Amino acid sequence: MSTTFTVDFFSSLDGYGSADGWTGYWGKEGPELIEDRVRTFQQEQVLVFGATTFREFSEFIKIFDEPYYDSLTALPKIVFSSTLEEPLEWENSTVLNEDAVTAIERLKRTTDVPMRSHGSISLNRALLAAGLVDRIEVMVFPAITGRAGHAALFHDGAEFDLELLESTVLDGRTMKLVYKPTPYAGIPEGVGPQPRKKD
Question: Is the distance from CB of 182 to CB of 161 less than 8 angstroms?
Answer without folding.
Answer: yes
